[in-house]
């Protein structure tokens, strides 16, 4: 299983089998749906922001181990962060997931604060070697990104 | 007659490769099949020796190319039992074939409130063109549902067809493998004054087809799913319907005359074939049909029934009861399309693990989201069988599925 161990790291399988913050939040929490048209996966991000802070976040929907573990790690990482920190974190994660050469510019301009470490999320780096799975890893992040945009515009 | 699979496999060079030190096991023919040397050679021979644009030049090379192209039309007409080669239209794919009918026939014959009946088994290609007409001109879409076993629920067929103008339906599901009773459906549609369009993308490559025997009005199918090239689709329709239909795309080749004021359309298939057609691809289709005829669709069908039966027995026996394969359990009522559900393990993860074992299957919704939603699943891993697959391929699939189950066990 030479190539696959890069993809399916222990921590990824742990988050897949024991997902954090799975479930729903009632209004006034914001609800945002994301779709992966390639595979049909659907993710729902429930985001409760109070005083510019991610007070609570939950994930609904279904997906593969990569999309589910990425969503789980994402919720653990952004809970308690400010909206600004969350937005920076999303950018940092997405630049890690970008295929080389695709977003060098983004790398330069969208750095998260130095004290923000990707931590467990580093395990998802291996996904980049499997380009068809990158969309699985970024689905929940794009949906959270959209939720933040919708909240900012509301 | 039985197929000599070892001899057939020798004709398919792409199958003789290794991945991760393992023999490549190709089980994704429902998406697109592989091609034998006979087809590859026919296509390259056109470009090496026979190529020119068709229907135009008077030089001998152009005449030969035109003959090759028109010969493919004759061959295709014979293959599906059509009354005349004038009834065969070459398009760029089966999706375009359905869109051609929706645009040309649909815009002439469907007004606000008119009814088109579909089924829950349909591929998006036989849903979205009709939804576009629903949006544009307010036609009504009705849906034939499914029974527990994944067959069409025909209990309310008469109600659904009452007042309908068209029944647009697949002959074989690309997710469940379900075969639909096309003769019966055609008779029911005609009884209600409706026409019937059949999506034969999954059926035409795998079982004998005769459009006159089943008495249908339109048939679409994909050469690339039947050992032929991509970039070519087929539409068959009864000649009278084609004569009455307006053109689809406008341009060169589809006209009788053009003035500054207006145009008049060509007669026959040319009316629907604007622009330079897929010439070498048509020659490839001829070779693909020859190859299928050499082995015989009846024999191929028998092989696939036997192999599907073996898969339906072997896979759950090796992998365990948590492996579910929805659809008819009797292989004589289905094609060799197996949608695999393995407990909580997601189709993407199954397919990734299968790839590690050099087993090629297709994860996803298979462009049939209404059907997937009906079953409450987002994605399945689909293995599909063809004439070059054998018991060893099914055994390799079983072993790889068992490995996936162990790896992702909760």
Protein architecture, described:
The complex is a heterodimer of chains A (154) and B (410). Chain A has helices spanning 4-7, 10-17, 65-78, 83-97, 104-109, 134-153, and strands spanning 30-36, 41-50, 53-62. Chain A has 154 residues and is α+β, with helices and mostly antiparallel strands. Chain A has one domain (4-153): Alpha-Beta Complex (Sufe protein. Chain: A). The termini of chain A are far apart. With 410 residues, chain B is an alpha/beta fold. Helices cover 40% and strands 16% of the residues of chain B. Chain B is built from 14 helices and 17 strands. In chain B, the strands form 5 sheets. Chain B has a 7-stranded mixed sheet, with helices on both faces. In chain B, α2 packs antiparallel against α10 (279-295) and α11 (297-319) runs parallel beside α14. Chain B is globular, with a radius of gyration of 22 Å.
Give the arrangement of secondary structure elements.
The complex is a heterodimer of chains A (154) and B (410).
Chain A: H1 4-7, H2 10-17, E1 30-36, E2 41-50, E3 53-62, H3 65-78, H4 83-97, H5 104-109, H6 134-153
Helix pairs in contact in A: 2-3, 3-6, 4-6
Chain B: H1 5-10, E1 18-19, E2 22-23, E3 25-26, H2 37-50, H3 60-79, E4 88-91, H4 94-109, E5 115-119, H5 128-137, E6 140-144, H6 157-161, E7 164-170, H7 182-191, E8 195-199, H8 211-214, E9 218-221, E10 233-237, H9 239-244, E11 255-258, E12 263-265, H10 279-295, H11 297-319, E13 323-324, E14 337-342, H12 347-356, E15 359-360, E16 362-364, H13 369-375, E17 380-384, H14 391-407
Parallel strand pairs in B: 3-15, 5-6, 5-7, 7-8, 8-9
Antiparallel strand pairs in B: 1-2, 4-10, 9-10, 11-12, 13-14, 14-17, 16-17
Helix pairs in contact in B: 2-10, 3-10, 11-14, 12-14
